[in-house]
Design goal:
about 110 residues, mainly alpha, Arc Repressor Mutant, subunit A, three-stranded antiparallel sheet, elongated
Length: about 110
């Protein structure tokens, strides 16, 4: 899996509560991604077995709104997401740490 910034944000939203299904608009708002980025990403994750989707059961509570499609990480998806995010954290801190001496030498600090 290639961890892009949008994918990283979506995975973090899923991992906030991995047992809860999230629908597309909810994911878009929480992760700050556009639908043209989100839905192809979800399709790839589902094809890879990392995400499951299910349609909402139609109910009177929906008030005429069309059923929502809910997505959630599979067990493998949770493990893979945590591994990828854990790999990303040390790389990000190395990159930030590597900039500090350059700023200090340039007199910007």
């Amino acid at each position: 899996m290639r961890l892009t910034k949008p994918l990283e944000r979506v995975l973090r939203v899923f991992l906030e509560d991995a047992d809860v299904g999230r629908y597309g608009y909810d994911l878009m708002k929480a992760a700050g991604v556009q639908s043209g980025t989100l839905y192809p990403m979800l399709a790839r994750l589902e094809a890879d077995g990392m995400v499951l989707s299910d349609w909402q059961v139609r109910s009177e509570e929906a008030g005429g709104r069309p059923p929502r499609r809910y997505y959630r990480l599979t067990g493998d998806g949770v493990r893979a997401a945590r591994q990828e995010l854990a790999k990303e954290a040390p790389a990000a801190s190395r990159a930030v740490g590597g900039l500090r001496p350059a700023f200090a030498q340039g007199g910007l600090v």
